[in-house]
Automatic annotation (TrEMBL):
Transcription keyword on record: no
Protein name per UniProt: Ferroptosis suppressor protein 1
Superkingdom of origin organism: Eukaryota
Function: Putative FAD-dependent oxidoreductase.
Names of required cofactors: 6-hydroxy-FAD
Entries under Gene3D superfamilies matching the protein: 3.50.50.100
Length: 370
């Protein structure tokens, strides 16, 4: 029998954020340390599967995991409005204050439908939002996806798989799909797969009237290349923004130009003792992906344990670890490191079938609803 993980004694650890980085960190610490996790929603939002929820009615119940069921009374649902690093106090919107010995900020990113929703009070509200969106998708004949990064590619794959009778166009301002971290061959292979599904891919052209487009009715998409594309539904899959409202007023001088907190190789916020930042809200030089945020959490846990036992701290080496692209339910594509292609059947098995919903519930010790 293996021994239980050692107790971590860093005082009261407060984690702000219930996403991939924050919730995974809290889950690894909840039985080993004195923690509180603060989230402005009562649920973990499984963003990786949100696009499937936009094409399949009822799937949304699989992407909202109740945080109370994971953390019990270690959870506080509330919005952080201020951080006083001198008194080590966090202020919540409801007037409550929370003291910390160690603070970890993991506030994540903001996005728009269908990639993400505005924070909702209950999971049921999220389910309603996505079921309504499924109806919009089903009613549209001509759909334009704006953005050909990983999210745009996956959105095109979901639509191309479930709605073969629709006209689907993907417009990307760059000359290649997915990510510059993908090899040229892999990017071309992804494009070929989409085109075989009937998706029209337009590269090196930018939508110029995105802000003016009527996203719920017939309209015309205009591009810098002079194209005019009639559409019933425009799906934006570009530009997540850092969620910084929890720390902007208190730690504004610690942010970079993207609103991310500047951290050292241990995720310590520069100039702030006992304050750390992980996930999308820190400025590590790497793709902002759920997997990387989860790696950040592992590193933090290891260092908290090392600090307790007097061992040297472990530096985090940022880098491109792995990116698996789900192109609908039946096709997967992946790359490890900078050049190694992962066989498609592996990505299909691990991700494409259910977008890791079952695994994500299981990783938090819960059973996924049917």
């Amino acid at each position: 029998m293996g021994s239980s993980p050692s107790r971590i004694d860093c005082g009261h650890i407060v984690i702000v954020g219930g996403g991939y980085a924050g919730a995974n960190l809290a889950y690894q610490l909840k039985d080993r340390a004195d923690i509180t996790i603060i989230s402005d929603t009562s649920y973990f939002f499984h963003k990786l599967a949100a696009l499937r929820a936009s094409v399949e009615k009822g799937f949304a119940k699989k992407i909202t995991i109740p945080l109370k069921d994971i953390f019990g009374d270690k959870l506080k649902v509330g919005k952080v409005t201020g951080i006083d690093t001198n008194t080590k106090t966090i202020s919540l919107e409801n007037g409550e204050s929370v003291k910390y010995d160690v603070l970890v900020l993991a506030t994540g990113s903001n996005g728009v439908l269908p990639c993400q929703t505005e924070p909702k009070t209950t999971p049921e509200e999220v389910h309603t939002v996505y079921d309504t969106y499924v109806d919009k998708v089903a009613a549209a004949r001509n759909i334009v996806i704006v953005g050909g990064g990983p999210v745009g590619v996956e959105m095109a794959g979901e639509l191309g798989t479930d709605f073969k009778d629709k006209s689907i166009t993907l417009i990307h301002a760059n000359d290649n799909l997915v990510s510059p971290h993908y090899t040229a061959k892999n990017r071309k292979d992804v494009q070929k797969i989409l085109e075989q599904m009937g998706v029209t891919v337009i590269l090196g052209d930018k939508v110029t009237n995105l802000e003016q487009l009527n996203k719920d009715g017939a309209t015309t998409v205009e591009t810098s290349g002079g194209k005019q594309i009639p559409t019933d539904l425009v799906i934006p899959c570009i530009g997540l923004t850092t969620r910084r409202d929890a720390y902007e007023s208190s730690l504004g001088d610690k942010m970079d130009s993207f609103g991310r907190l500047k951290v050292d190789e241990y995720f310590n916020v520069i100039g702030c003792e006992d304050v750390f930042a992980i996930g999308d809200c820190c400025n590590t030089d790497e793709p902002k992906m759920a997997l990387n945020g989860m790696e950040h959490a592992k590193c933090i846990v290891a260092n908290f344990a090392n600090k307790t036992s007097g061992k040297p701290l472990k530096k985090y080496n940022a880098g491109f670890i792995m990116m698996g692209i789900s192109i609908g339910r039946n096709v997967g594509f992946g790359q490890k490191g900078t050049s190694s292609t992962i066989p498609g059947f592996i990505i299909k098995m691990l991700k494409s079938r259910d977008l890791m919903t079952g695994k994500t519930w299981s990783d938090f010790g819960l059973k996924q609803p049917k």
